[in-house]
């Protein structure tokens, strides 16, 4: 077995190291989310794939660090932290805000001559599709209502005032990053892009997800699933098999 004991640092979580894998999947969380959201993904894909999950500052074990309120800054830092992990091809997966971060990371990797093998963008409109949103400026009650509407946070957490006080600053910061992001025109990606969307997602329409096609000259595929913003929670096996199939990893259901 290959010995791979490299340090992951504050930004990277590697729950199930797979040092012999030929592919590495890098996962970017949604607004208010953390790296642990992808623990089950890591467990399911290991050891065929080496899964890394990005941990943004301001949450969980990084809760005492200042949050980053800008998508491009998050992307720059993530690229720096991923530099030691480019010894095998990287595939990027991001949900909601994480999809935009993944896209900006992909742009920087391509500019550096190390394009990702593919980019999965889930539950997020294409960068060039803008909505006028300002939930990050609202009071706590409105912010909590929006979280509840999207069902991205466990109801038990929403009912615990102490936990809410801990996580609301990170959620507000992430909302600000997502809502104030504006696409800077530039060359489209050359990497394949797969867009995933729920057919009843209040945050992104199927047409807005289809517009990701304009951001790559490589192969593009759109997958529509039944469900809302967190449709992926109910379709994890199909999404995991989609990732496996595109990377040549045997499916668990084939």
Please characterize this protein's 3D structure.
The protein is an alpha/beta fold and 254 residues long. The chain has one domain (12-133, 182-246): 3-Layer(aba) Sandwich (Rossmann fold). 33% of the residues lie in helices and 14% in strands. The protein contains eight helices and seven strands, in the order ββαβαβαβαααβαβα. A seven-stranded mixed sheet has the order 1-3-2-4-5-6-7, with helices on both faces. α2 crosses α3 (97-111). It is globular and about 50 Å long. It starts with 11 loop residues before the first strand and ends in an 8-residue tail after the last helix. The mean pLDDT is 89.
In order across it, which strands form the biggest sheet? 1-3-2-4-5-6-7
Structural class computed from helices and strand pairing = alpha/beta
Query: The biggest beta sheet, please?
Result: 7 strands, mixed
The level-1 CATH class: Alpha Beta
Number of strands: 7
Write down the secondary-structure element order. Answer: EEHEHEHEHHHEHEH
For this structure, what is the CATH homologous superfamily?
Answer: Alpha/Beta hydrolase fold, catalytic domain
CATH topology (fold) name: Rossmann fold
β-strand percent reads: 5-15%
Task: List the uncertain runs.
Answer: none
Globally, the shape reads: globular
What is the residue-averaged pLDDT?
A: 89
Question: How many independent structural domains?
Answer: 1
First-to-last CA distance: 27 Å
